[in-house]
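Repro:
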Amino acid sequence: MPKIGVFDSGIGGLSILDEAFLQAPSHDYLYLADSVNAPYGEQSSAWVASRSLQLCSWLISQSCSAVVVACNTATAQAIDQIRKKFPQTPIIGIEPGIKPAATLSQTKKVGVLATASTLQSEKFNALLATLLGDCEFITQAGVGLVPLIETGDLQHPQLEQLLIQYINPMVQANADTLVLGCTHYPFLEPLIQKLFGLNLHVINTSSAVIKQMCRLIPEATISEPGSVTYYSTQNSAQLETLAKQLMSHQRTRQVSSEMVAI
């Protein structure tokens, strides 16, 4: 079976990997968390681009036949360079789902919660410019969210405080749809729904990203789940523990974890 590489600054990309396990369970996966450098959202564009190229190069050196850039910040700042360097390898990125949000919103006011780096990127703003006539987008950098999510404690009281601080002004401005523009943020969806109710439609693009992966790298007709190896630049045992805690679709998959210095 093809081996698929997935990388993120930390555990956020596990939300993408979980969807991959659901849609394409027979593939083997290598998940690489650059946790020693997380979060990426407050790093410079040049640093993110350089580091993302390093991580992608490492995954390809491990015989990955495709790579999922499971990080909005890395996609925004580096995916063009990655694709240029590896033109023969399918590189699947992720971007905030503002197009489907604009279609879904009844009030035509949409909140976008993302990292500062994503919101400032040329790629995001070029996408936003194509939709400004259709909808008003209220953007907010989720400063402080990623480090808290990285602990795995999704009940941390500060998470609730920050979400209220960031999302309440959007709701007060009549936004009825919220785009989660960071792969860490889907883990907060239950808390967001608890705080703001089901009337605030939450958009993340995990399903669409993995559908694209499946189009590029179709599965063979094998019913057995493939393997997954969790690699971390900081603490692989903790990464594996958090994966088991946060993900829904591991089931009987063969799992291992390793530290890696890149």
